[in-house]
Amino acid sequence: MPKLLTPAAVEKYHSAGYHFPVRVLSTAEAASYRRRLEEHERKTGAPLQGNWRHKCHLLFTWADELVHHPKILDAVEDVIGPNVLCWTTNFFIKEANNPGFVSWHQDATYWGLDPDDVVTAWVAFTEVTPANGYMQVIPGSHKVEQLPHVDTFHKDNLLSRGQEIAVEVDKSKAVGIALQPGEMSLHHIKLVHGSDPNRTNDRRIGLAIRYIPTYVRQTKVRDSAMLVRGVDAERNFDPEPRPQRDLDDAALAAHADAVGRQVKALYSGTDRQQFRA
Ligand code: NI
Predict the structure, then answer these.
(1) How close is the Cα of 4 to the center of ligand 1, in Å?
(2) pTM check: above 0.70
(3) Which of 177, 186, 241, 268 has the fewest CB atoms inside 10 Å of its own CB, making it the most exposed?
(4) Do residues 253 and 58 make contact, with C-beta atoms less than 8 angstroms apart?
């Protein structure tokens, strides 16, 4: 028996490439995560940017707590099995009335992970609606082979290389992932997805947590990851330490090392040394 999802939900994930909504936090808990992110932003005077939008669970104890959340991990275990690494986290923050968007893409394009048993747990810190740019997916598209992508580096594209699918996507088949704060969706690394800008007066905030079974390998660099459940018999990734205090020296060093490896993988073939702002 699955730990959190119903057998029908597990089947849906494997056949359609996604499943939602899954309630993992209460509304109050979701608001408290948003508050902790925004407390940090108030101190720095700017929205979380650049490298700090990625692998932030190595920097902040609250983000580390979230990637270890038992409900999230129960659902993840239901789709990828009992031995789980957290490979990365990426904040997808769309500011109010902002042109930021995500082009149609498959996550697998530049990640270098093999095989493709990789799941994203996308946790909503705010309400996520058509008006504020919810994620749209093409059901079943994870079963096609990797599609060709082109790099656009478009300034308003939230993806690392502004990568987009080079062939026509049939948008009439798209399903929108509307979520309440504290709900999450799950999607497969090859699922075709994208999203439009936020046309509302509030921010739209989601944390994408990428989980892999320990048998997955990184084909591009010697990468690192954090064991969050079960045992790691394969040791395909160097272990990452949990932050003891927000942004302390050890956390900053671990984050810099881990993000450096990831930038090498994601931007291979370009001259970029860090994530875009
Ligand atoms: Ni994506």
Answers:
(1) 24
(2) yes
(3) 268
(4) no
